[in-house]
## 1
Amino acid sequence: MTAALYYVAPGALDGLGVGGLLVLDGDEGHHAARVKRARVGEELLVADTVGMVAHCCVESLGPGSVSLRVVSVGLVEVGGPRFVLVQALAKGGRDEQAIETATELGVDAVVAWQADRSIVRWSGKEAKALAKWAGVLRAAGKQSRRAVVPAVSGPVTTAQLAQLLRGAAAFVLHEEASERLVAQELPAEGDVYLVVGPEGGIAPAELTALSDAGALPVRLGSEVLRSSSAGPAALAVLAARTRW
């Protein structure tokens, strides 16, 4: 069984070498000591959410903290293009399901999109909603043992999204597209955007705006997927070609 992963603040592992002592405290220390009931000698992973990860061994336990001896530490690097999921806000928590699964599949960043047909609206509560998404990404990152937690931003309007995609490699998932995602050439590096609309679909004017910005409408297959599964399915296609 893979060792449990815990997160510390970015930079907390800088300068830490083999044999060094690391104290896990706060919420993560409490979770390790009280909830997971870590034991002396147990192996744990500690990551700083931006790429550094330390393999550690539990040396001692406190009431709400764990003292760890570092066995190895290093930077986890992922080669190839950087995958960005642009997820339209969707009802029923389907947008959160999408970004959760996308994180488990290796997405590098997530952008919230306030599409015309999005029933869900973040107006007046953007900060709270974005923080909730960030929490979903962090939890999914821990579950999937990721050293890097995907960045999250937005919500963007369609006009802002078109500007973001201009000049970038970008694909808009659309059930009526003639091009297939699996057949597209991918850049060796740089950002690759996957755009997913809400349950009501992408409005024609939006599709035109994104296409005019250079984004290519593509389909995955003959099936019509929910907004909760379209992004992760597309990401799996790209990951299979570049990472797996």
## 2
Amino acid sequence: MASKGREGEHPSVTLFRQYLRIRTVQPEPDYGAAVTFLEERARQLGLGCQKVEVAPGRVVTVLTWPGTNPRLSSLLLNSHTDVVPVFKEHWSHDPFEAFKDADGYIYGRGTQDMKCVSIQYLEAVRRLKDEGHHFPRTIHMTFVPDEETGGHQGMELFVKRPEFQALRAGFALDEGLANPTDAFTVFYSERSPWWVQVTSTGKPGHGSRFIEDTAAEKLHKVVSSILAFREKERQRLQSNPQLKEGTVTSVNLTKIEGGVAYNVVPATMSASFDFRVAPDVDLKAFEEQLQGWCQAAGEGVTLEFAQKWTDFQVTSIDDSDPWWAAFSGVCKDMLSLQEPHSGARDLPCFHR
């Protein structure tokens, strides 16, 4: 076991705080500093390190611990290096200072999503190597960019490259969610992220008149239909303790655009929505429902997708599955829960 530092802090915590201080925050993440940090960890741990630039300034870093039987498929441990934007005025401490209070709580953007998991991977490998373990399967750790913006310049491109195919991954693990209880939650699927923009066109005119067939009126009808659906799903979740957040469809209105002046009725208005569609939903029927709401609002109402993930698979959690049996066997003495993930991750790219 690694010894504690001068201030009694475990080296793994110190490493975690160092990683948190790297400003990989969207929309201008410092990926170069993150890659340098990971390269140094690879050197210290005696791991192979490969850098794959999948797009300009977008590097996937692969750290590899070779197994004793290269003919076997590998285990892939994935994490993303970027974090979402911050509003510093709402933070009690600088989100990139990695401040630790007297109770040991660490404040920082990325503490849960998901730099903690990256350090857990690295520290698990360090401990296993220090204890002299060797495994038949090769273990790859991938650190990818741009997950927080949809993965389009990260994992989505990486899986199409020969460097990814060369990893020969048989099983992959990615991010989960923190659990405030002593239970460990295992996520075997996730919801499909659909980012939808509804655009409404209507008659323009002066703000002093009762203009008929306006863009705002028609957009209001669509917004009302979608928010009514949202409330129905929210009530369904709250009324059934067997349901989890990842088993219902959520939606939030995230942006409204339109208008040029207070006294001018706009010809065009739009609303953007973030849908997370539950794994058991018929995606074709759900899209038809969205189109139906637009048609019911009147002529000139259309929708388009900024993001639409449809190729989702559910990982087997049957005891007959060898990968699940190996994973769950180690966790049998822990209280574990299985459910679909409520957010979106990079793992669906592996199924495409």
## 3
Amino acid sequence: MKILVETPKYSFKKYRKKRRGYAVDLVSPIPTPFNYGIILNTKADDGLPQDAIILGEKQPQGRELEAEKLGVACFTDEGIQDNKIIVSTKKRVDWQDKIKINLFFHVYSLYKKIVGLTTKGRIPDTRFEGIIFEGA
């Protein structure tokens, strides 16, 4: 599948591809420990292109990669299933990657709840539900 890198590894800002360039979609309380992007020519349940976690070396924003699905990070955002497909430039997932994904999405979920409470006066139905790996 073709993947587009929107957010380089270690960024505090999550970017989203727009018609012309990239816009900041969210500022995270912790840096993203992986590259983050989308699977081109797809649409997820939230109506946006399917999200992808891209493991491996830091990639520049805008780079297109070919990768195979290694797993899924199961996530619900504002009550809508918003899973992230896990791919890797190194073609594998190691134990450190698993820890980074788990830690990041637990913190990210809590952060989104705090933001929802402080900006909308309610706690959104946002939660990280774990990781499923292919062939497991």
